[in-house]
Amino acid sequence: MVTDQQEIKSLDAGLDRTIILLGLLMAAAWLFALFSYYLSRKTGTDWFSRSGAMMSLIGAVITFRQVNFYQSALATALKEGLVSVPEEIELRLKPPTSYRVLSYLGYLTGIIGTAIWGYGDLLLTVAH
Predict the structure, then answer these.
(1) Nearest CA to 101 among 75, 72, 62?
(2) pTM strictly above 0.85
(3) CB 121 within 8 Å of CB 48
């Protein structure tokens, strides 16, 4: 039988695993943007703007996926009696630092991606 502490550790491990995977996806989006900027400057194609569209999409996916996973984990913990309602409210108001950092980076990725998507072609012409 699984104890409460083991269940809490399992939920924490799942959150950590999700944050790491989403962080890797975000890093891939940024690397793709950097690579496409370099490729666009070398070949004259417009891959940079397309990478901005991908960054925007990935930023949104990361943010929504992370929120969904965290809310599901909190609901499970509340249903299983692992946390009380006041603790659950506190966890909603002040989630773990890694969660907040990934959230802000997801928002930033979406914002920067939108700017690249809209103005990436102009950035390339100014850079030449």
Answers:
(1) 62
(2) no
(3) yes
